[in-house]
Design a protein that fits this description.
Distance between the termini: 130 Å
Oligomer: single chain
Radius of gyration: 50 Å
Length: 183
């Protein structure tokens, strides 16, 4: 019995030692698995951040380029350059905005041409109104002064020449006033 008990004790101690070794090994394995899983999670998180940054940059560039082109086109329109068209590759909201900017540019070009035509007509009317009457009066008074000089009435001719000078000065002042208004 003692021999069996000793053998049983040796076997029991062996089982306990093996159980302790297996427990220690499973603890080491669990710790290694935990470290590996942390590394994998950190790598996935890092890769996700890099991917998000790359996608964000690509998205930003796909928006910034069309917006820069739109801004440049609007600046040219503001400077009075209505030539050219705006082309944006993607036909989403930015493409619709580009089409609207082009349509606005065309409408502004037509309006500016109409305004220029109206301004030319107004200038012609103003010049005719300012100078037409005065130049006619100068021509008639000049003819009268010439006839008076031919007939020998120099006093009256001098009076007519003084009137011509006054009308010419008034006309010159009116033209300068009008020109200042156009500037």
């Amino acid at each position: 019995v003692a021999q069996l008990a000793d053998r049983l004790e040796v076997l029991t101690d062996g089982l306990v030692n093996r159980a302790q070794a297996e427990a220690a090994q499973s603890f080491v394995d669990a710790r290694d698995s935990y470290i590996r899983s942390r590394v994998v999670v950190i790598m996935f998180a890092g890769a996700s951040l890099v991917l998000a940054a790359v996608l964000g940059l690509a998205l930003a560039l796909s928006i910034i380029r069309p917006l820069s082109a739109l801004g440049a086109r609007v600046r040219r329109i503001a400077e009075g350059d209505f030539t050219g068209r705006l082309y944006i590759e993607n036909r989403d909201e930015l493409g619709a905005l580009a089409a609207n900017v082009d349509r606005m540019s065309e409408q502004l070009r037509v309006l500016y041409e109409q305004l220029a035509d109206q301004e030319r007509l107004r200038l012609a009317r103003d010049l005719h109104d300012l100078l037409g009457h005065s130049l006619s009066l100068i021509a008639i008074k000049s003819q009268l002064a010439r006839r008076l000089l031919a007939s020998g009435d120099t006093t009256r001719a001098a009076s007519e020449v003084a009137d011509i000078e006054g009308v010419a000065r008034e006309s010159l002042q009116d033209v300068r006033h009008a020109a200042d208004g156009y500037r």
